[in-house]
Design a protein that fits this description.
The protein is α/β, with parallel strands linked by helices and 278 residues long. The protein has a single domain, classed as Rossmann fold (3-Layer(aba) Sandwich). The chain contains nine helices and seven strands. It has helices at 19-29, 42-56, 70-84, 123-144, 146-151, 172-191, 213-216, 226-233, 247-254, and strands spanning 10-14, 34-39, 60-64, 89-92, 154-159, 197-204, 265-268. Helix 3 (70-84) runs parallel beside helix 4 (123-144) and helix 4 runs parallel beside helix 6 (172-191). The chain is globular and about 60 Å long. It starts with 9 loop residues before the first strand and ends in a 10-residue tail after the last strand. The structure holds nicotinamide-adenine-dinucleotide (NAD). Nicotinamide-adenine-dinucleotide is lined by residues 14-15, 17-21, 39-41, 44, 66-68, 93-96, 132, 136, 159, 161, 204, 206-207, 209-212.
Amino acid sequence: MDELNLKGKVAVITGGAGVICSRMAKSLASRGVKTVILDLDGKAAAKVAAEIENEFKLPCMAIAANVLDKTSLEQAGKEINQKFGEIDILVNGAGGNSPEATTKVEIMDGSEDPEDTFFGLKTEGFDKVFDLNFKGTLLPSMVFSTDMVKNRSGVIINISSMNSYRPLTKIVAYSAAKSAVNNFTMWLAVHFARVGIRVNAIAPGFLLTNQNRFLLIDEKTGGPTPRGQKVLNNTPMEAYCVPEELTGTLLYLASDFSKAVSGVVIPVDKGFSAFSGV
Ligand code: NAD
């Protein structure tokens, strides 16, 4: 038996036009999975879908939808069912941080402008980041798992982060939301355990992407910011991760290789989460 046989399955990848999830969609397509690139940015989704069709000679759908709008997800579900059939795999990749929910100061000493600290955070910024990462995982799971329950078979893979284990300084809303994603991963894994759906998460280490470039790379010099240097110093394998390094774990979790695995969050982080810094 080929445990990695995913041929003919249908996978929805939210945030599928982004850096990490476009690569994940391609790795699923390389195994014969019919992929759906669901993203707020319809143009970028169409571009990724065209690349996949071209490279893997497989149908790929691009859908412009908002993971925070249940009606738009339900509409997407109908389109997918009509064109590709029932959904087998969901990757909840839409997510990210925002400068509006980020403090300027890492650790207060009391002399700073309060605006640069915890006290300067805007609740709207906090809500935006928390909702995108947490509700943006919850709602697609609710909408796209109905086929899986009917078929008593399916896989949900959430995308978490290093800050879900221990919060990173500055990014309070993002840390809280990714922690909530881990908790939800376990909760839903238990809830779905008897209807044949496995729910797991991947916690990527640090990658250089749109959401964190402003924190890790100095715009003027192009070199690492002090924070970027700290990340590298605390990564035992001494490098940022790249999206290709996440696909092995994705295929493992999507396939029968992990058929007894549910409710776990797997770090793919070059040792970051294991390292105490000393
Ligand atoms: P990215 O910004 O490249 O991709 C995110 C995608 O989500 C974008 O295409 C964006 O258009 C889409 N999106 C945003 N809001 C949406 C919404 N409301 N509805 C639908 N789509 C929406 O980011 P990325 O770095 O590839 O991140 C992908 C996932 O990985 C995120 O969940 C992120 O939190 C997580 N992650 C990233 C890193 C990192 O270092 N980059 C590390 C750990 C975890």
